[in-house]
Each structure stands twice: as structure tokens, then as C-alpha cells.
């Protein structure tokens, strides 16, 4: 479909930060890279299990952008031109980068997207300079309206913005044709995801970001995909890890706060033109892409958003983010750690809003010794699983020589290469807004079972601990004799943490048992010691 022949004044600009330099790409790697964005939104855990090779079983996404190039890591289902250029190919690289962040395949090579392998329907509405007009945008949106049902398109990614405002009436009061079309899409059940903008301002001056019907992404810094604020920047960005990005726009009005979610978009490592992968510009364009991936996962087979209206899906995504924040999935600048006058929303997550915790894939471990494990019934309050074997090198407190511990080699997770970019001017601390005070409060934890002085034995000893924190507990581990880690507990519906262990390889005697709880900021609290007597 072609837009009207009369070209209007250019008003639409794609949203990537101009301050970020673009690095040269590398050929698609033979080993798949799990970049931090996938971990940030918790997509490596259940129910998504990105990186497991799982076949995509959800809907498609329409990417209205500069076009998307054919790429071995993308499931490009169709490409349409509405830019007036006569070509649906990516004229800039922006659309290809956005698409990789959303849905790069889980195929063992290249990179991994948030919704791996989701079909991409590219609608080119921007030129090679990332500019468009109302006519090109309208053309693209009309194509989506006409073709979404037949192609199972459920999500529309709009990583661009133009000056404008929300009249709170779907554009019918101020004559905003783009707003009217957005409302038509949401009325048909489509979820429209947009970018907040990159000027560090109230987003209310931009559209589609300010439309109440759009799920709008602000930009969150997360260099390593894990909480704690210890990640290091692999690009020119200098903002602190696990914080709101300095240049990201934000919500101020109560209406805008109701459709904003934080999403990672700093130092994005993604697909590039020429069948390459590499770092591209930071900005809310990529934040919107990551958020689109989150929505796609919520809509895949068995997902929480299946059958919901567009408005209900926006609510579900925001609710899941808020609940995850209470469990340690947070950043400096979210509503629980606010920056005065700036609302960035909670950090997006693929974990269900019912609070189901993600289950991380098991890492491959090779050891020089062989130990046997025993399948334990669900007496510890969890499904049947192998009991942890406490190493024989641990001696009772009453004495006895310990043997050397077996050597263990653990395979590291593949990460993108660190690339240092040149910058012409260093930013001073004064350039950044004051952040909320860092969380320095350690969690409280205690061993609940076994009790002090208990005599224990057998292959099915249930260890149980409780833990609480002012922000949220992210994990609880059990230790014997102070320094020997037995294993990580599994959180139960009751809120307690449990671990089943096999004590049969321990020598009889008295041992001390402690629990250590960790929160999202990396603070660790240790329980009081409980002494137990092993008698097998």
C-alpha cells in the first residue's frame, strides 16, 4: 500500500539517543549470545525459558519503522512499504535493530530476543534518515488494521514519536487522525507499544507516547541483566547500573502514569543490517522493543494475556511489573525508589502477575567425582526432586579431619563482547538527577527447621528458612558450619524457602546450620546459628 502522493512536512523521528555512538557489527556468531535485555525482563526463566530452544507458539508483531532487512536471526514473515521510497528494505538499520531486540530466534547462533522467533511483520513508514509523516504513519497503521486478523498480529511496535498531545478522547476532540487509528487498533484487541522519548522531559508533549491507549516504555539501565547495581557499561553510557536512564522521558500526570512501564534500552546488542549483530544506539526505541517482546510472551499459548482486551493486557503487564518489584526486580527510579517529579513505572517482566517465580535454567557443571542422589517425596512441600548431597569434606564441629573438596568446573554463560567506544566529552555527576538513597538494609532471615538441638538423619532432611526485607528477598541459601554452602532454597507459596538434603554421607556428630538471605541490592543477612546432631 502506498501513502498519498503529497508528502507532508516531516514530523516523526525514531527514538534512539543521538549521544550514543554506533559500533561496527560483527558477522552473526556461531554461538548464541544471551544479551542482558533477555535477563532483565526475566525471560530466561519460566514461563518463557528463552535459550532453551523452545519453538515460538504465539502471535506476531507489526514493526512500523525504517523497514526490516532479511536476517538469519529474524523470522521476517512479511515486509510492506508505506514510506513512499518504493522499497520495503531497511533504509537505516533502526527497524532491523528493533526487531532483533523483540524477537531474535532461539536457534543456537547470533543473539536471543525477548520473544524468540516471533513472526515480524515489517511496515516501513520512515525514510533513511528516520523521518516520516502523518501520511506514511497512517498508511502503515491502516495496513495493520486490514491484515492483523489474518496474520495473527497482536502487538504493534511504534519506536518513534512526534510533537502532539492526548485529548483523552481518541483524537476525536483535537482531530488527531493518528490517535484515532491507534484507538481503532486497540478496539480490535491489538496492543500498541510506544517509546517515551529521549530528552529527559515529561512525555506529555509527544505522541503516541502520551496516548492513554498506548503502553509506553521508559528507559532503564541494566548492563548485566541482574539486580544489585554492579554491572559495568560496555558502551559510552555512564549512568549507574539498575537506574532510570538520564535522557529518558517520564510521566508526570496521573493519566500518563497509568500506561508507563520501565524497560531496558541502554547499550542494546542486537541484529544489524548485513546479517550482522552488534551494539546500536541507546534509547527508548529499544525499550519499546523489549516491552513488545514482554507483551508477546504474555500472549503466547497458555499466557496470562490470552483472551484479554487491550486495556486489560496493559493492566496485566503493569501489575506483573509491580509484583516483581516487591520481590527484588527493581531499579533506582521506579515507584518504590522514586526520583522526585519523574515517574518511570515499574520494570517490565515476563513473570506472571500471579507472582509465579521464574525458574532459571540449570547450568552445566562438570566434576571430577561422582555422587549418587536419591529422589525425595514431597515432604518438604515441593515436588519430587533430587536431594542435595552434602560433601564428605565437611567435618562435625566435634572434630575429624576433612578431605580435600572435589574440583568443579562450571561453563560460563556466553555474553556479548565488551566494546569500548570513544566519547568526546565526559559527563559530570551534575548532569544526572539525584537518585533515591541506595538500599543498604540487609534482609532478616531465620532457620525454621530443623530446630535447635534436633537429631537428624537420612536422605530426605528438609531445611526450611523464613526471610523478609524492606524491598524484597531474591534468594535464600543454606550453610553448614558457617562457610560450606549446601544449596539454594526454593521459595514456597507460604513465602518460606526450603531445600531437601541427603545427610547420609556426613559423619555422625554436631553441625551448625545457618541461612543467608539476599535482596535485589545485594545486601545479605545471616540467621542465628542452629545446631543439629547428625545420627545415621
Textual characterization of the structure:
Mean pLDDT is 81; it is low at 2-11, 18-24, 357-379 and 399-437. By secondary structure, this protein is α/β, with parallel strands linked by helices. It has 7 helices and 30 strands.
Tally of helical runs: 7
Q: Which word captures the global form?
A: elongated
Average pLDDT: 81
Low-confidence stretches: 2-11, 18-24, 357-379, 399-437
Structural class, judged by helices and strands? alpha/beta
Percentage of helical residues?
Answer: 10-25%
The fraction of residues in strands falls at 15-25%
What is the topology?
Blueprint: E1 12-14, E2 26-27, H1 36-40, E3 60-65, E4 76-81, H2 94-103, E5 120-124, E6 131-132, H3 134-151, E7 153-158, E8 160-163, H4 177-187, E9 191-195, E10 206-207, E11 214-221, E12 243-244, H5 254-257, E13 260-264, E14 269-272, E15 276-279, H6 284-298, H7 310-325, E16 365-367, E17 375-376, E18 385-386, E19 388-389, E20 408-410, E21 444-449, E22 455-456, E23 461-468, E24 473-480, E25 484-488, E26 490-491, E27 497-502, E28 509-519, E29 524-526, E30 530-534
Parallel strand pairs: 3-5, 3-7, 4-5, 7-9, 9-11, 11-13, 19-27, 22-30
Antiparallel strand pairs: 1-6, 1-8, 2-15, 8-10, 11-12, 14-15, 16-20, 17-18, 21-23, 23-27, 24-25, 24-28, 26-27, 28-29, 28-30
